[in-house]
Amino acid sequence: MITKKSRHEISLMKTAGSIVAEVHELMKELVKPGVSTLELDEKAEKLIRERKAIPAFKGYHGFPGSICASINEQVVHGIPSGDVVLKEGDIISVDVGAIYKGLVGDAAITLPVGEITDELKELLKGTEEALYAGIEGLRAGNKLYDTVSAAVEDKANEYGYGIVRNYGGHGIGRSMHEDPFVYNFRPGVPGPELKPGMAICIEPMFNLGTGSVHTEQDKWTVVTDDGKASAHFEHTILVTDSDPLILTQIHA
Ligand code: MG
Q1: pTM above the 0.70 mark?
Q2: What distance in angstroms lies between residue 184's CA and the mean position of ligand 1's atoms?
């Protein structure tokens, strides 16, 4: 069932979304060579708790971190660790979730560590463009897969990237993962009709090489089968009567 959010719930989701956006701003300042992903995790958790929110990922199905920190060929669900130290030329995807008074915000960005190759810059640009192309389709009356999923797939094809098909976006609200599932490609059906009040996470994951992935022995970290780099961008967005509203941004 796809839930529609009340005005009150939307206001709480805006606050949750602002907190997530603040964490991403903090990550942009902190990400540099020599920093461990555990340090990033600790600083993210501190900020989330200072804002009277709860890190949504911590303890979720037993996940140990407050953020997912996925480097280079890691696609999603990387576990923060003091042993993982960022190096010049890496890329790092930081996925963050915050629960504020029972409502969740969820977003991801992929950041460069120092100077990265043009190939990686292009991967980040193309994946972020896919997110915004998807958001553009998130309008009342549209069919989710015909517009959002199709736009994401088209962007991957434009750049020639592999699409990670095993994971995708989702509805969100009082739970982090609600209906509907959001494919990053055309699944062959039009998908549910979008209505004002629905809140959806769109999250393209694009790879330089194959879209095929597997999970490592830690049971969490998803990596590309060919070891080539992967990028991930995500926002939580509200369907409205007019333009889509990105909830995971800093609201004035
Ligand atoms: Mg998500």
Answers
A1: yes
A2: 12
